[in-house]
Every structure is written in C-alpha cells, then in structure tokens.
Amino acid sequence: MKQEEIDYTKLPQHIAITMDGNGRWAKGKGNIRLFGHQQGVATVNDIVSIAAEIGIKYLTLYTFSTENWNRPKDEVSGLMDLLIKATKKYIDKLTKNNVKLLVIGDFSGLPESVKESLQFVIDKTANNTGMNLILAISYSGRWEITNMVKQIASKCANGTINPEEITNETIQNNLCTANIPDPELLIRTSGEYRISNFLLWQIAYTELYFTDVLWPDFTKEEFLKAIKDFQTRTRRFGLTQEQI
Questions:
Q1: In a domain, 18, yes or no
Q2: CA–CA separation, 244 vs 235, rounded Å?
Q3: Residue 219 belongs to what domain range?
Q4: Measured between alpha carbons, how far is 42 from 218 in angstroms, rounded to an integer?
Q5: Is residue 62 part of a domain?
Q6: Is 31 a catalytic residue?
C-alpha cells in the first residue's frame, strides 16, 4: 500500500486506534510482555509520523485503560516508565512535525513523575498547529460517561442548567473530547473484535476496521490500507443511499 493510492480529498479528519497485541507479539518471540510494549512505542512513532505527513488532523491512541491498572505490578510499572521515556525521546520530533499533544483520562492514579512528564510535553507542543495527537491514558468510556454525568448533575444542582435543557450537545461539551470531533475511523489491531470501553459515546457513527496484525507489526502500509478501506465505504448516518 502506497501513499499515492490514498484519496487525499477523502481523508478521515479523526482516527482512533486500539493498539492491541504487544504482549502476544513478545510471547511469540519468547520474550517478556514489556518487550512487546517497547516495540509498540516504536510503532506509535511510525504511525504518528505517517498520520501527520498525510494530513490527519486528530489521532487518538488507546494507550492505557483504567482496566490495565489490574495487570501485574511489574508490567504496570514498566508501562509507566515507558511513558516517561517515550515523551522525553520523541518531544523534539513532535515539535519538528508540528504535532500538538493532548491527553484524556483519569489522571488521579498516575504517578507524579508521569503527570509531570506528560504536562511538560503538552506545554511544549501547545502552540503547534498541525496534527493533534491524543493519548487516552487511564481512560475508559464508562469512566468518561460517569464523569460527564457527575459534571452535569453538579451544574443542575447549582442551577447552572435545568435538566430539561440537557441535549446531546450538553453531553458532548462535558466529555474529555469536548473540543475534538468524533472519530470517523476506529482501527483495532491483533484480531480482536471488541470496542473494549473506548470512546463509547464518540463512536456512534464511526467506521470500524479490524486487522489480525499485532500492533508491533502494524506498519505505515497497514495504516494506509485501513484508510483506503475507509474510503470505499458509504457513510449514511441513517439516511438512504438515494438521500446522500
């Protein structure tokens, strides 16, 4: 799959990716799971580069879910260290490629060192005007919706809004992605056919793309292949074919 095969007039504005298969990839090579996560970071670098190069405006990566906190402590600790190392390693490249970093999720449980490292990159890239790279860290769709309900309930309680005034827009404005358009394409690697608690509200009309390729083996060509597949689909949003 080559870049010239892509229709640049039909690029999805926002692509979300569930990066799955790091552990299985490492196990298949007789190594520990963290080795797979390390290779997964290299894949992130490649995909961020090609996404920014072809003009994707928003790229959201499911980096660490709230459920991932239940994994073995050594693996969680290793993942936190990887986050810190990756932000330090790639900050100059993000700046060079004009990429702006954003982070969504429940940060209350993150180690202070991780928070500080992420905030440094967020601040450093705040004025970049190219692609928005959104990392979903300590995130889950159900957590986000619960958090949104609490925010709206609080506003109702203090009289900021009336319950009768709550609309879809009200909900959207109280999500982590309040200022981010919904993804048009969601990619999941490793042959799993699940949403896994990712952007549950936002993907109501998102096109889903599943591939058997494990995340460490997910190349730029595979990314372009997913976009090419997206461009063959007709997005009707409840309308008939004739109405489009």
A1: yes
A2: 9
A3: 12-140+182-233
A4: 10
A5: yes
A6: no
* 3-state SS track over 32-71: CHHHHHHHHHHHHHHHHHHHHHHCCCEEEEEEEEHHHHHC
Residue 132 counted as domain residue: yes
Q: Can you give the CATH number for the domain in which 96 is found?
A: 3.40.1180.10
Q: What is the mean pLDDT of each run of 10 residues along the chain (244 residues)?
A: 90 98 97 96 97 98 96 95 95 96 95 96 97 98 98 97 96 97 98 97 98 98 98 76 58
pTM above threshold 0.70: yes
Query: Does residue 106 carry a catalytic annotation?
Result: no
Domain contains 39: yes
In this structure, the number of other CB atoms found within 10 A of the CB of residue 201 comes to 16
Choosing from 20, 22, 97, 132, which is the catalytic residue?
20
Q: How many domains does the chain have?
A: 1
- Smallest Cα–Cα separation from 132: which of 187, 85, 180? 180
For the record, the structure tokens of 91 come out as 């900050």
Distances (CA, A) of 241 to 159, 168, 233: 44, 26, 12
Annotated catalytic residue: which of 45, 46, 68, 217?
68
